Amino acid sequence: MGMNLTLKVWRQKGPEDKGRMVTYRVEDVSPDMSFLEMLDVLNERLILEGDDPVAFDHDCREGICGMCGMVINGVAHGEQVATTTCQLHMRHFEDNAVITIEPWRAAPFPVVKDLVVDRSAFDRIIQAGGFVSVPAGSAPDAHSVPVKKVDADAAFDAATCIGCGACVAACPNGSASLFTAAKITHLSLLPQGQPERDSRAVAMVEQMDAEGFGGCTNTGECTAVCPKGIPLDTIARMNRDYLRAAK
Amino acid sequence: MKYTEGEPIRDTRAPEGPIEDRWEKRKFSAKLVNPANKRKLNIIVVGTGLAGGSAAATLGELGYNVKSFCYQDTPRRAHSIAAQGGINAAKNYRGDGDSIYRLFYDTVKGGDFRARESNVYRLAQVSVNIIDQAVAQGVPFAREYGGLLDTRSFGGAQVSRTFYARGQTGQQLLLGAYQALERQIAAGTVEMHTRHEMLDLIVSDGRARGVIVRDMVTGEIERHVADAVVLASGGYGNVFFLSTNAKGCNTTAIWRAHRRGAMFANPCYTQIHPTCIPVSGDYQSKLTLMSESLRNDGRVWVPVKAGDDRPVAQIPEEERDYYLERIYPAFGNLVPRDIASRAAKNVCDEGRGVGPGGLGVYLDFADAIRRLGRDAVEKKYGNLFEMYERITGEDPYTQPMRIYPAVHYTMGGLWVDYDLQSTIPGLFVIGEANFSDHGANRLGASALMQGLADGYFVLPTTIGDYLANGPYGEVDEEAVAQAEVAVREKIDRLLSNNGSRTADSYHRELGKIMWDYCGMERTEESLRKALERIPELREEFWKNVKVSGEADELNQALERAGRVADFFDLAELMCVDALHRTESCGGHFRAESQDADGEALRDDENFAYVAAWEYGEQGPVLHREDLDYEYVKMSQRSYK
Q: Which cofactors, by name (chain A) (predicted)?
């Protein structure tokens, strides 16, 4: 037995267009469909009717590339915790539900079309210092520097950030602190990240501000919607590293 | 479709002499470009996965002017990111008898003796440098309490040489390459073009000199010229529509290069991965892999009796058939992928499959949880279990996973020599996009190894040799204009065709033809059927496909239609290749060629060659590259 749904979808031709919500009816949706597969079904119909299909970003559809992302019923990636939009399945919705679907909304993420936004600001934050400067071929043997398991594990937890931008979309200040802090934490927990630890923290924080992201006021919405559960205390670490460097 | 025979082809770049010295020799004989000249040389790299991302970053570090292109919104999304299990390296940190030679041996054997020895040996040599490089970048590999790197075992190997970062090894390695790439973008050596799709190759005076791309946001068709072009655009598994590839993965970049003269090698070699989540409905858009590493602790079984649909708990131990352990006692659940996949198909064909439609087998962790405890299992595989639960709504801690084989990787790709150069001078092909190294079957955890070996270590050396022999003069304006016109014409044709079916619906139908007739098992009859159906469906596609929207805007329907058009042509070549190779080898199983136990039967006398196909208006032309085995004696693979 399929489900019948009403979708209210944000449609916007391009960055200059004002945009509006448009209502669509989708019928006979299988509970085993993913959210994006449900939108595929809608789009197939729109193409045949000669309409413009709803543009949305997606790629791996297994929760790891970070390309998909929409605000579903007011929550970034929908209400299921620690789940990207592509991994959200229709069995979590009621029959005859009304579902609103909107793009990430934040000034540094301008809308490209419909649900597609421009997240290149994240790349520029990484460019500012989210790396270890080690040209190919110059590395010492991997076992020359042991790393405590607890540090390696904690670094890994921070490094699982997929760069989807849900943290920004959920934050009332439009802050990119969780994204930036995740990278700073990952690298500053490892011995390999130490030589550039100070300059990295300063440069990345400054770039984050220059892009127009807001400041952090410890609301915690970011970590609540994060599909990878990046912990809030990474932001404390970022602030400590930043202060340490500024001294 | 008829093919004709052409002249044999040879790799002339691999040096002679002892295999362990060949890469050293080639590095020394390769000409160098001095630093001042590097700044004047332009290189285009298409794709930003492990191969393309690491290549663009490394070429930038060396001082070349690099332009990098990807179709996603940022280079970090490339599908290498989804690789779960790990990366092989012959570090022998465990002291369990591993060596460069053993990794070389395992890879040649795992590839069913259809890969070049010189290339594979180099891959095994370079593997150790990759781990060093990744660790220095801060890739958070799993570690032991003593602070040293942890490893695990993988299919097709009896040593523990797979380095991993929980179930997200591809993600962590790709982010390492991505960060190196972003560092070069900041340094100004790499110019990044995201949301750009390559639609044709510019060949001028017989050399690859640039690409025609479409800006996927504005629709603008752009020309980019360079001194050399590197394709790192990944594999073509999406020709089957359902695969574990990302939705955007496509064959257009390599297929367009093939049309311009690059030979396509072994297109029929497809890897069907044994452990994927089964199909749940006809709306399904992709299949999700469950890492092979799960086979370290999970046990694969089906009921002994056909048609046994009792719940798991009611099936007593003696009525369960742990068929991999039974048939292959030496390797058990860790047999290579092609063997595990076919075994799953066989038990399902016998009516013993489980789940909807009987297309599934159990992967059971009950024993592992009893032996190691739930916490330990969760630590090792937690994210995979979570992913399974999200997709199926079932809890793998309390009931076995259901798995079934799915298309995962393509060993075939553009033909390259030892320098990774295609048959078009100046066109280099790396990573999954080329055909090298894996023969007819890739071992688990070897894709990440090959992508990074090509990008960080091999290509940056060999491309220098090509560039040092330049400059290659002005680019022929006529060639550029002609490529651009061809691209525009195709787009116009798709948009003006007011048909009644979507590109996706044709893609789905094409994929079904390929899965049914050119999938896990191929016969002369099935392939002939496919070769009849594909051209008919393609003709209908061009008459009846409907693409809405305009050329000069973000138009995802148009992007898809263009890719499907190229998949049709590739599908046909795959079937021609599969039909001509009447032997079974690795992932290519011809039902007519099997031994008494149903195992793949190679025909070394007639097929110990690489099939390199040249594009021809009158049908493909076959060029054979004979394979010689000086070190590893050709033998029937046995994992029993």
A: [3Fe-4S] cluster; [2Fe-2S] cluster
Closest residue of chain A to B460, computed from CA coordinates: A136
| Range list of H helices, chain A | 35-48, 120-129, 149-159, 166-170, 177-188, 197-210, 221-225, 233-246
Query: How far is Cα B43 from Cα B41, in angstroms, rounded to an integer?
Result: 7
Give residues 138 to 177 of A whose Cβ lies within 8 Å of B. Answer: 138-143, 145-149, 152-153, 155-156, 159-160, 162-163
> Which residues on B lie below 8 Å from A59 (Cβ)?
72, 77, 79, 246-248
Q: Which residues of A touch B456 (CB under 8 A)?
A: 136-137
H or E stretch at B153: none
CB contact under 8 A, A143 and B457: no
B337 is catalytic: yes
Q: Which domains does chain B have, with CATH numbers?
A: 273-408 (3.90.700.10), 477-607 (1.20.58.100)
Q: Is the pLDDT of residue B372 over 90?
A: yes
ipTM beyond 0.95? yes
Please say whether the dihedral angle defined by the alpha carbons of residues B224, B225, B230 and B231, taken in this order, is positive or negative. positive
- Residue A148's CATH number: 1.10.1060.10
Q: Which residue among the candidates B337, B522, B560, B637 is catalytic per the annotation?
A: B337
pTM over 0.95: yes
Task: Say if residue A181 is in the same domain as residue A106.
Answer: no
A69 CB within 8 Å of a chain B CB = no
B 266-325 residues with CB < 8 A to A = 280-281, 283-286, 288-289
Please give the Cα distance from B113 to B605 (Å, whole number).
Answer: 12
Pick the last residue of a domain from A73, A93, A113: A113
pLDDT over 80 at B536, yes or no: yes
Give A-chain residues touching B547 at CB under 8 angstroms: 47
Average model confidence (pLDDT) for chain B?
96
> Do residues A220 and A181 lie in contact, with contact meaning Cβ atoms separated by under 8 Å?
no
Provide the pLDDT confidence category of residue B338 given band limits of 50, 70 and 90. confident
Contact B194, A87 (CB under 8 A): no
Q: In which band, very low, low, confident or very high, does the pLDDT at A192 lie, cut at 50, 70 and 90?
A: very high
For residue B305, what pLDDT is reported?
A: 96
B638 pLDDT exceeds 80? no
Chain B CA closest to residue A143? B148
3-state secondary structure of A125: helix
Considering CB atoms only, which of A60, A140, A149 is closest to B132? A140
- Residue A138 and residue A230 share a domain: yes
